Amino acid sequence: MRASARLDRLPPYLFAELERKIEEKRRAGVDVISLGIGDPDLPTPAAICDALAAAVRDPSTHGYPTNRGRPEFRQAVADFYRRRFGVELDPESEIIPALGAKECIFNLNLAFLDPDSLALAADPGYPVYTGGPVLAGASAHPLPLEPELGFVPDLAAVPGEVAARARLLYLNYPNNPTGAVVPDGFFERVVDFAREYQLLVVHDASYTELCFDGYEAPSFLATPGARDVGVEVFSLSKGWNMTGWRTAAIVGNRQAIESYWKLKTNVDSGMFEALQLAAAHALTDLADFPREMSEIYRRRRDLVCEALERIGVRVQRPRATIYVWAPVPAGFDDAASWCEHVLERAGVVVSPGAAYGAAGEGFFRISLTVPDERLLEAVERMRSSLA
Ligand SMILES: *Cc1c(COP(=O)(O)O)cnc(C)c1O
């Protein structure tokens, strides 16, 4: 048996490797605290579960879904975008469901890339921005997120011949893994860049609803001209504690959505309609639920940042997301050796920044998705491992 060359070209999936290590430690009897994976620890709100239960009993949801989506779902996304972001979307042509942001981002590569073309991918960034292009038989070109620019790429520094081959540009604000929010004026520069090189901007909006300190993340589509050059992938996973449900939507440029739809009609048969109705309920009746979650993450962010500062790690407090992005403490060669040390000496899992791209070297990521007392214990154990 022989697997495809494109599978061989994939780097090992970071979290698969992490899960293996955690399992090994747990089997050895260590009480491992994992701050590695960004998967909310709290359950989906009961009202959303009730909405799903009711929808499951409605026989109109039992057949093959269409990849266009139920009208109720598309309308709920449109209403949410108008109220929350001031963005008007046509439910008929500018919104369709996606089986999670991950599916959508992966399939956009198949829909838009040819072997000699490129996707420009934020570095550090969500691993699918680089793995997806490889699986599509194309390549990813990393765009380092510059800390001194506020963790955005320097678009003016992208070589012309690289930009000319690019068909896709992956961006994500509020950002995983850095926790950065988009600086004023950046989305406008992105629209100009996309116009100049005629590429499709894919803005990954996985964290727009998890913001702190009064900050409210914008939609990329609120930028003038954005709809001509881009789509946004909006996910319920993180904001509504629904990672297992696989509920997201792609919104924006209708031509791009049409291409994605055409591809998907050959790949999957759409989102279970009961899930679409439950997601519509979440966006309509529980639109403010992520604010409650944000308060919990804000408290955890403060716990972690204060504890890190006490051990001499200076961090920028993030104004959004469920992550703290921190520099590797002095005395360690790189992020991998620090993360190895933390796992071996403290039984704590954190992710090395370099796993999200070369530009992430020198940093590590802490996920805030464990209860407060476990979070405090983890940072305390990290402290004693340094003593
Ligand atoms: C978690 C995450 C995703 C995946 O979202 P799903 O909708 O659950 O597939 C996509 N992008 C980023 C940046 C994420 O952190």
3D architecture notes:
With 387 residues, this protein is an alpha/beta fold. The protein has 2 domains: 5-43 and 289-386, Alpha-Beta Complex (Aspartate Aminotransferase, domain 1); 46-285, Aspartate Aminotransferase, domain 2 (3-Layer(aba) Sandwich). It is 41% helix and 14% strand. It has helices at 5-8, 14-27, 46-56, 71-85, 100-112, 128-135, 160-165, 186-197, 226-229, 254-264, 273-285, 289-310, 335-346, 372-386; strands at residues 33-34, 95-98, 118-123, 139-144, 166-171, 200-205, 230-235, 248-252, 323-327, 348-349, 351-352, 363-367. The strands form 3 sheets. It has a 7-stranded mixed β-sheet with strand order 2-8-7-6-5-3-4, with helices on both faces. Strands 9-12-11 form a 3-stranded antiparallel β-sheet. Strands 1-10 form a two-stranded parallel ribbon. α8 (186-197) links the parallel β5 (166-171) and β6 (200-205). The N and C termini lie far apart (51 Å). The mean pLDDT is 95. The chain binds pyridoxal-5'-phosphate. Pyridoxal-5'-phosphate binds at residues 38, 100-102, 126, 172, 176, 204, 206, 235, 237-238, 243, 248. GO terms for molecular function: pyridoxal phosphate binding; transaminase activity. Its cofactor is pyridoxal 5'-phosphate. This is LL-diaminopimelate aminotransferase apoenzyme. Residues 31-381 form the Aminotransferase class I/classII large domain.
